[in-house]
C-alpha cells in the first residue's frame, strides 16, 4: 500500500521578524508533515514560536524561508487572493486573542465566513446557530463581544472557525480562557469533529491534559522542534485515510 | 458580490452611526455652502439684468464728459440743451423717443408730511423711454410743457409717503420752494439695479424744472430710446457724428460727451455681480475643500481604526478585493447621502434666502452636479485609498496594527 501524500508539509521553514540588529528568529527551521485527519497539539514555552507557526500554517503570515505545501499546492507561489481563497475554503482559524468583530453579534460573527462563501442568508443563519449550539452558546447568539465573557468570546471564535466545515482547524490556545469543565467539553467537540468529519486539528496548548486529546504532540523550543511524539498508534486514524507520515 | 458588498456596507454604516454621521456632515456642509452661494449669486445677476431690461429696451443714455465710470470727467464739457434732444429726434433714423433730463434731489411737502426724493425734469418722451406707465391721471399737456406749468407726475413711493389714504390727483405738492399740482401717478416698478427704489421719483415738465430747480437751461443727460430692431451701435455712431458737429469739435478733439446703451450698462453691472459671484463661489469652494479635508480625516481615522477589522475579514477568507469593494461601497453610500442631503439643505436655504432678499431662485444643475461630484470623489478617494493599503497587508499584519 503506497502512502498518500501528506496534507501539510513544512520543510526548513523559517520566520525572522524585523531586520538587522533587532531581527528575531521566531522559527529557525521547522520540518513537519501532517495527514488529513491528524490531531496535533503544539506545546512549548512562551515565545517559542507557536503562534508564529500557526499563523504561517493558517496562511495569515508569510514565512521568511523554507517551503510550505498544502496538499499539492506550494503556498509560497500563491498570490494574496489565492491565499485568501485557500483560507476561505480549507482553513478555520481560532486566534489566541479571538479577533471577533466589535459591535457585531455572536451570530453575525459566526455567519461572516459563510457570507464570503456566498451562502444565502437563511442557510447562513441556520449554520451559524448550529455552530453556536455546538459550543454551547445558542442562548447568546444576539450578544456582541463586549457583552460576552472571555470564555464565551473564545467559544464564538471556535464556532466561527468550524462553521464552514474546513479541512483544517488551527486553534491557538482554544481553551486558554476556559474552566476545566468547559475545556474538556471543547476538546470533546474537537475530538468528535476530528473522528466524525475527518477534520484535521492543529492546536496550541500549555496544558498537558488538553494535549492528551491529540494523537500527536510537538514541543517547540526557540523556534525549533524540540520533541515530536509521532503518531499515537492507540488513536487510529480514520479508516479511509491511509497512513502517510 | 456587489449586493453582498452593499449589504455589508449598509450594516457597517448602521453599526457605526456616529462616525458615519460625522463623515456625512462634512460633505453636507461643504456641498450646501457651495450650492447656496453660487445659486444666490446667479439669482442676483439675473435680478439685475431683469431690472435693467425694465429700464427700457434699447435705451441709449448720453451724458456730457468723456466716459462713464471711474475717472468720468464732466468738468469743462459743455452741457446739453433741449435743442440737442430735438435735433437727435429729428435727424437720426430709428429713434422712438428722445428725452432731455435734468434731475435734483429735493424735499417734498404735502400737507403735514415731507419726504426727500429725486425730482426729474423732462418731456413726455421720458415715459416711453424709461418704460414708465401711468397708474392714474394723465401725462403733461403741450401747454404745460411749453409754458413750464407747475404740474407733476409722482412715483408710487412718493404717493404712498405723502398721500397715503388720500386721492393724490389734483392735490398740491410743494417741491422745494414752489407748489405744483399732481396730475398723474406712475405704475410701480420696484427696486432698481443696486437696490435703489425707482418709484421714489417726481417728474416735472423740463422747462419747469430748469426754471424753478436748476435755474439754468442746461440738460444733464439725454435718454434716447431706439425702435425695436434698431442696432444700438449704428445709432450711437450716428448720434456721435451729429453731436460732434453740433458741438463743433475738430477732428483732433476727443468726444466731450459719452453714449452708452442699456445692454452695455447691463453688461457692466452684471459683470460686477458676476465677479462677486465668482468670489463667493471661491469662498464656497474653500469651504467644500475644508469639508473634503474633514471627510478625509474621518475616513483616515476610521480606516486606521478599522485596520483590525480588515485583518479579521481577510483572516476568515475575504479577498482583498472584497474588503475593498465593501469599503468603497461604504464611502460611496456615505458620500452620496451627504451630497444629496447637502443639495436638499442648499435648496431650502436658497428658497428661504431668495424669498427674504426678494430675489429670483434659479435651480442651477451645474453647480449641484459639481459640488456633489467633488464631495463624492473626495469621500471615495479618502475612503478607498487607506483601505487599499490595509487590504494589501498580510492578515496578521493588519491584525497587529492597533
Ligand atoms: N510581530 C512581531 N515582531 C517582532 N517579533 C515578534 C513578533 N511576533 C512575535 N515575535 C517574537 O517571536 C517570538 C515567537 O513569538 P510567538 O508569538 O510565536 O510565541 P508563542 O510561542 O506563541 O508565545 P505565547 O505562548 O506567549 O503565545 C517571540 O520571541 C516574539 O517576541
Ligand atoms: Mg502565542
UniProtKB/TrEMBL annotation, chain A:
Pfam family, one: ABC_tran
UniProt keyword list: ATP-binding, Cell inner membrane, Cell membrane, Membrane, Nucleotide-binding, Transport
Protein's UniProt keywords contain DNA repair: no
An annotated Gene Ontology molecular function: ATP binding
Ranges of residues in domain ABC transporter: 8-241
Gene3D superfamilies: P-loop containing nucleotide triphosphate hydrolases
Matches recorded under SMART domains: AAA (SM00382)
A Gene Ontology cellular-component term: plasma membrane
UniProt similarity note: Belongs to the ABC transporter superfamily. Macrolide exporter (TC 3.A.1.122) family.
Database matches in PANTHER family: ABC TRANSPORTER ABCH.1 (PTHR24220:SF86), IMPORT ATP-BINDING PROTEIN (PTHR24220)
UniProt-recorded name of the protein: Putative ABC transport system ATP-binding protein
Species: Novispirillum itersonii
UniProtKB/TrEMBL annotation, chain B:
Transmembrane regions: 21-41, 279-303, 331-354, 366-385
Annotated keywords: Cell membrane, Membrane, Transmembrane, Transmembrane helix
Domain MacB-like periplasmic core: 20-241
GO cellular-component term (any): plasma membrane
Domain named ABC3 transporter permease C-terminal: residues: 282-394
Topology of this chain in the membrane: Multi-pass membrane protein
Cross-referenced InterPro entries: ABC3_permease_C, MacB_PCD, Macrolide_Exporter_MacB
GO MF annotations, alphabetized: transmembrane transporter activity
Main subcellular location of this protein, as a coarse class: membrane
First and last residue of the signal peptide: none
Location in the cell: Cell membrane
Similarity annotation: Belongs to the ABC-4 integral membrane protein family.
This protein's name: Putative ABC transport system permease protein
High-level lineage: Bacteria, Pseudomonadati, Pseudomonadota, Alphaproteobacteria, Rhodospirillales
Amino acid at each position: 500500500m503506497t502512502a498518500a501524500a501528506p496534507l501539510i508539509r513544512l520543510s526548513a521553514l523559517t520566520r525572522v521578524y524585523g531586520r538587522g540588529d533587532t531581527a528575531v528568529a521566531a522559527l529557525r527551521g521547522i520540518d513537519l508533515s501532517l495527514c488529513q485527519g491528524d490531531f496535533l497539539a503544539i506545546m512549548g514555552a512562551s515565545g517559542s514560536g507557536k503562534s508564529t507557526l500557526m499563523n504561517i500554517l493558517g496562511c495569515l503570515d508569510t514565512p521568511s524561508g523554507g517551503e510550505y505545501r498544502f496538499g499539492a499546492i506550494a503556498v509560497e507561489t500563491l498570490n494574496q487572493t489565492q491565499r485568501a481563497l485557500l483560507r476561505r475554503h480549507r482553513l478555520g482559524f481560532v486566534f489566541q486573542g479571538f479577533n471577533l468583530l466589535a459591535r457585531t453579534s455572536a451570530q453575525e460573527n459566526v455567519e461572516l465566513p459563510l457570507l464570503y462563501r456566498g451562502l444565502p442568508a437563511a442557510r447562513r443563519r441556520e449554520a451559524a446557530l448550529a455552530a453556536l449550539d455546538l459550543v454551547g452558546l445558542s442562548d447568546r447568539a444576539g450578544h456582541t463581544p463586549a457583552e460576552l465573557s472571555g470564555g464565551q468570546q473564545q467559544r464564538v471564535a471556535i464556532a466561527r472557525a468550524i462553521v464552514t466545515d474546513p479541512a483544517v482547524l488551527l486553534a491557538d490556545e482554544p481553551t486558554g480562557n476556559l474552566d476545566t469543565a468547559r475545556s474538556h467539553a471543547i476538546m470533546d467537540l474537537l475530538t468528535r469533529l476530528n473522528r466524525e468529519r475527518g477534520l484535521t486539528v492543529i492546536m496550541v496548548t500549555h496544558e498537558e491534559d488538553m494535549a492528551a486529546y491529540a494523537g500527536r504532540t510537538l514541543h517547540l523550543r526557540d523556534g525549533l522542534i524540540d520533541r515530536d511524539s509521532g503518531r499515537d498508534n492507540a488513536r487510529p486514524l480514520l479508516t479511509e485515510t491511509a497512513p502517510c507520515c | 458580490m456587489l449586493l453582498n458588498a452593499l449589504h455589508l456596507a449598509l450594516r457597517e454604516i448602521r453599526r457605526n452611526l456616529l462616525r458615519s454621521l460625522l463623515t456625512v456632515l462634512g460633505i453636507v456642509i461643504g456641498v450646501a455652502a457651495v450650492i447656496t452661494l453660487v445659486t444666490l449669486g446667479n439669482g442676483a445677476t439675473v435680478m439685475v439684468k431683469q431690472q435693467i431690461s425694465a429700464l427700457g429696451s434699447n435705451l441709449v443714455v448720453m451724458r456730457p464728459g468723456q466716459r462713464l465710470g471711474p475717472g468720468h470727467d464732466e468738468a469743462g464739457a459743455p452741457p446739453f440743451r433741449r435743442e440737442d434732444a430735438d435735433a437727435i429726434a429729428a435727424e437720426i433714423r430709428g429713434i422712438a423717443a428722445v428725452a432731455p433730463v435734468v434731475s435734483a434731489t429735493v424735499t417734498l411737502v404735502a400737507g403735514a408730511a415731507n419726504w426727500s426724493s429725486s425730482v426729474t425734469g423732462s418731456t413726455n418722451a421720458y415715459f416711453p423711454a424709461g418704460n414708465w406707465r401711468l397708474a392714474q391721471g394723465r401725462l403733461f399737456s403741450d401747454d404745460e410743457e411749453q409754458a413750464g406749468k407747475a404740474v407733476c407726475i409722482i412715483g408710487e413711493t412718493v404717493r404712498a409717503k405723502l398721500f397715503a389714504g388720500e386721492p393724490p390727483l389734483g392735490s398740491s405738492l410743494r417741491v422745494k420752494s414752489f407748489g405744483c399740482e399732481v396730475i398723474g401717478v406712475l405704475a410701480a416698478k420696484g427696486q432698481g439695479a443696486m437696490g435703489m427704489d425707482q418709484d421714489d421719483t417726481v417728474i416735472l415738465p423740463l422747462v419747469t424744472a430748469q426754471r424753478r430747480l436748476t435755474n439754468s437751461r442746461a440738460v444733464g443727460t439725454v435718454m434716447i430710446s431706439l425702435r425695436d430692431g434698431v442696432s444700438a451701435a449704428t445709432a450711437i455712431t450716428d448720434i456721435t457724428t451729429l453731436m460732434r458737429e453740433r458741438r463743433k469739435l475738430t477732428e483732433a478733439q476727443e468726444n466731450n460727451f459719452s453714449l452708452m446703451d442699456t445692454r452695455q450698462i447691463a453688461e457692466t453691472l452684471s459683470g460686477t455681480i458676476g465677479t462677486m459671484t465668482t468670489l463667493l463661489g471661491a469662498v464656497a469652494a474653500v469651504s467644500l475643500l475644508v469639508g473634503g479635508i474633514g471627510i478625509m480625516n474621518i475616513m483616515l481615522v476610521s480606516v486606521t481604526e478599522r485596520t483590525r477589522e480588515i485583518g479579521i475579514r481577510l483572516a476568515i477568507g475575504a479577498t482583498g478585493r472584497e474588503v475593498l469593494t465593501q469599503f468603497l461601497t461604504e464611502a460611496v453610500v456615505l458620500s452620496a447621502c451627504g451630497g444629496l442631503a447637502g443639495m436638499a439643505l442648499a435648496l431650502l436655504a436658497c428658497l428661504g434666502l431668495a424669498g427674504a432678499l426678494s430675489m429670483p431662485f434659479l435651480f442651477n444643475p451645474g453647480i449641484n452636479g459639481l459640488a456633489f461630484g467633488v464631495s463624492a470623489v473626495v469621500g471615495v478617494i479618502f475612503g478607498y485609498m487607506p483601505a487599499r493599503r490595509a487590504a494589501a497587508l498580510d492578515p496578521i499584519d493588519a491584525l497587529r496594527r492597533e
